[in-house]
UniProtKB/TrEMBL annotation:
Signal peptide: 1-22
Keywords of the record: Calcium, Cell adhesion, Cell membrane, Glycoprotein, Membrane, Repeat, Signal, Transmembrane, Transmembrane helix
Protein name (record): Cadherin domain-containing protein
Pfam families per the UniProt record, alphabetical: Cadherin, Cadherin_2, Cadherin_C_2
Annotated function: Potential calcium-dependent cell-adhesion protein. May be involved in the establishment and maintenance of specific neuronal connections in the brain.
InterPro entries assigned: Cadherin-like_dom (IPR002126), Cadherin-like_sf (IPR015919), Cadherin_C (IPR032455), Cadherin_CS (IPR020894), Cadherin_N (IPR013164), Protocadherin/Cadherin-CA (IPR050174)
One GO BP: homophilic cell adhesion via plasma membrane adhesion molecules
Record-annotated Cadherin domain positions: 27-126, 127-235, 236-340, 341-447, 448-557
Membrane topology note: Single-pass type I membrane protein
Organism listed in the record: Kryptolebias marmoratus (Mangrove killifish)
Length: 766
């Protein structure tokens, strides 16, 4: 940059956008080389370089000009492309680039203005290299001749500041300031011409700017001196004003100018022309040479130019001229819709974002005039969405959340931002923003039932699938991934995990082992559904399992009961009538329902002996298939107990049983004798006592009919084979013909004998 200086103006202000806002202004000269420093934006705005990089800092320009770039690593603004102020702004002053720097997460934006300072890099130029005049020698002192103005693309002090005309023998310059800051140049006759002395005059018009160093341009002025033309054309009005809308079509007649010349002949013939050379007037307007009609030949644009000055010159054949101005005022029409420029936007926000969270920042521009309704813009968003627009100065808007968000209710929003002006007819434009709502784990899994109840038939195969629990989670992705967990509990003191298991992924409940209805008929447990969020959320449900019975147990005979090889006989008196109750067979089935309904039937009679009979009774349940148990009942027809004994003592089975019993008694006696040799006296006493009791039993006439409690159950009868029981009279080996003598006239309640001891019965057996 050499000795050039640049200035920085820094201004911070806060708006109602909920985001940081600041403004900084730089001034730089035009034509700076690529990569030149504009300013340290990080330092001037107080933004850390790390924030510039993490916030993805980027530059947005309203006019799409790409002259400035941001070096986020160093926090510097640099010249990206050479800036030509004249190409960028033309004659407009001041000339500035308006930039916005946006940051994300959180959204922030800063306004940057780069003012481009003009340097004197353009030479004043004339559109024509030469102007020719034909002036009568009779031209009066003070006659004026309009000269072409020089054009300098620079502005301010670097624009054209003065003119000079040399030599000055006959003519001098006269400058008139115009409304646009330029100067109208006239050549004024100060000394009479003499064609006979000099019929051709050559002058040089020089235009000089005020830059450093000064630059200049020149044009030749050739004058042919004619014979006398005493009167110059004169316009009827020095200024004409016309108003035209910017949408006026080509060919529109704007005005008609008129000038008269008092001379006659060719000297009185007036021709019209446009004398503008500094602007684009000749390309937009034209004038009829003969009748002075000013018409539109180009397109008007209020946003580019609101006022045009047409310099019209009238000249006769004698070279005398006059000039006037036609002021064309362009009025605005609503021909430009608002332009929506997105500066910064977020593609997604979390559903827990608080109201007021900034989603997008944008700028709205309407090239139409802001002084009337055409440039007044209103923006709005579509209805029934939780977003609103907040506006700030300079037509900046921020789109912010207005209510709580819920991804489960709406996971995506298509937000249409529409902006319309107040022109007639109104013009509008819109842009649609797609915003994703990212999920937060705010929903626990929900089971499809409040509780579950299932049935399983007992004796199932381990690993059998019983049924499935199902839970859904309204969240998304990992937060909606449901896992099933069997909660710890116990069933009759046993962990429930030893009965059932649950698949973590599918919720399928399996039986861990074979279940037995007779051991457990019903149990319940709880299953937890847990999602994959952080922290995870869960819910519970109660599961009830009911076990259904199978016919897997045969009936159990409770009475008559068989113990060992003893034979029990039911005694029937010889005088018994038909229908006499001999005995009852009592059985139970641990199954339930029809599996426990029992039926009894007499299968067969094993012999036809009138005194002794063996009856086979079958007890059968009602299951499918049915199961049964069999019991053998011995019936003796006798009037006294000794008769019963005599009927069953000769049985080979009794002999075998007595021999076995004798062996065990002798063995027990030997062991007891060895252990208690010192108690010999006591043993002898016991033997004497047993001998006395056996004598009493021998003389007894009581029948031996055993009795069992009605709820007595045979714990050995739980197998699956049919049961056969033999009941016969049981006695000791030495009691076949025992005598039991008692004296007569014994008192009531006197001891006759110990029948249990003498016959070898146990008390429980009786």
């Amino acid at each position: 940059m050499g000795t050039m200086k640049w200035q920085v103006m820094l201004l911070f202000f806060c708006l109602s956008l909920g985001s940081a806002v600041g403004q900084v202004t730089y001034s730089i000269p035009e034509e700076m080389s690529k990569g030149s420093l504009v300013g340290n934006i990080g330092q001037d705005l107080g933004i850390d370089v790390k924030r510039l990089k993490s916030g993805k800092a980027r530059i947005y320009t309203e006019d799409k000009a790409d002259y400035i770039e941001l070096n986020a690593d160093r926090g510097l603004l640099l010249v990206k492309e050479r800036i030509d102020r004249e190409a960028l702004c033309g004659q407009t002053t001041p000339c500035a680039l308006h930039l916005q720097i946006t940051l994300e997460d959180p959204i922030e934006f800063y306004s940057v203005t780069v003012e481009v300072i003009d340097i004197n890099d353009n030479v004043p130029t004339f559109q024509k290299e030469e102007m020719r005049f034909r002036i009568s020698e009779s031209a009066v002192i003070g006659a004026k001749f309009v000269l072409e103005r020089a054009m300098d693309l620079d502005v301010g002090i670097n624009a054209v500041q003065g003119y000079s005309l040399k030599p000055t023998d006959n003519f001098i310059l006269k400058l008139h300031n115009q409304q646009d800051g330029s100067k109208n140049v006239e050549m004024v006759l100060q000394k009479p011409l003499d064609r006979e002395a000099q019929n051709h005059i050559s002058l040089t018009l020089t235009a000089t700017d005020g830059g450093e160093p000064k630059l200049s341009g020149a044009m030749r002025v050739d004058i042919s001196v004619l014979d006398a033309n005493d009167n110059a054309p004169v316009f009827t009005k020095k200024m004409y004003k016309v108003t035209v809308p910017e949408t006026a079509p080509k060919g529109t007649i704007l005005s008609t100018v008129s000038a008269t010349d008092a001379d006659e002949g060719s000297y009185g013939n007036v021709l019209y022309s446009i004398a503008n050379t500094l602007d684009y007037v000749p390309s937009i307007f034209q004038i009829s040479k003969e009748n002075g009609v000013v018409a539109l030949t180009g397109s008007l644009d209020y946003e580019k130019a609101q006022l045009y000055e047409i310099h019209v010159q009238a000249s006769d054949d004698g070279g005398l001229t006059d000039s006037c101005k036609v002021i064309v005022e362009v009025t605005d029409t609503n021909d430009n819709p608002p332009s929506i420029n997105i500066m910064s936007k977020t593609n997604s926000v979390t559903e827990t974002s608080k109201p007021g969270t900034v989603v997008t920042i944008f700028n709205v521009q309407d090239p139409d005039s802001g002084e009337n309704e055409n440039g007044i813009v209103h923006c709005y968003v579509n209805d029934n969405i939780p977003f609103v627009l907040k506006s700030s100065t300079n037509n900046f808007y921020s789109l912010v959340t207005d209510n709580e968000l819920d991804r489960e209710r709406a996971s995506e929003y298509n937000i249409t931002v529409s902006c319309s002006d107040e022109g007639v007819p109104s013009l509008s434009s819109s842009v649609t923003l797609t915003l994703q709502i990212s999920d937060v784990n705010d929903n626990a899994p929900v089971f499809d039932r409040s509780s579950y109840e299932a049935y399983i038939v007992e004796n199932n195969t381990p690993g059998l699938s019983i049924f499935t629990v199902k839970a859904t989670d309204a969240d998304w992705n990992q937060n909606a991934r449901v896992s099933y967990i069997l909660e710890d509990s116990s069933v009759n003191g046993v962990p429930v995990s030893s009965y059932v298991s649950v698949s973590a992924d599918s919720g399928v409940i399996h039986a861990v082992r074979s279940l037995d209805y007779e051991q457990i008929k019903y149990f319940q447990f709880r299953v937890k559904a847990q999602d994959g969020g952080s922290p995870p959320l869960s819910s519970n449900v109660t599961v009830k399992i009911r076990i259904q019975d199978q016919n897997d147990n045969p009936p159990q005979i409770l009475y008559p009961v068989q113990t060992g090889g003893s034979v029990v006989a039911e005694m029937v008196p010889r005088s018994a009538d038909v229908g006499y109750l001999v005995t009852k067979v009592v059985a139970v089935d641990v199954d339930s329902g029809q599996n426990a309904w029992l039926s009894y039937k007499l299968q067969k009679v094993t012999d036809k002996d009138a005194v002794k009979q063996r009856l086979t009774v079958i007890v059968e349940d009602n299951g499918q298939p049915s199961r049964s148990a069999t019991v053998i009942v011995n019936v003796a027809v006798a009037d006294s107990f000794p008769e019963v004994l005599s009927e069953f003592t000769d049985s080979p089975h009794d002999k075998e049983y007595n021999d076995t019993l004798t062996f065990y008694l002798v063995l027990a006696l030997a062991v007891v004798s060895f252990l208690f040799i010192t108690c010999l006296v006591g043993i002898i006493s016991v033997k004497i006592y047993r001998w006395r009791q056996s004598r009493i039993l021998y003389h007894s006439k009581l029948p031996v009919i055993p009795y069992y409690p009605p709820r007595y159950s045979d714990t050995l009868g739980t197998g699956t084979l049919q049961h056969v029981y033999n009941y016969e009279v049981c006695r000791t080996t030495d009691s076949r013909k025992s005598d039991c003598n008692i004296p007569e006239e014994m008192a009531k309640g006197s001891l006759v004998g110990n029948i249990a001891h003498d016959l070898g019965f146990q008390i429980k057996r009786l």
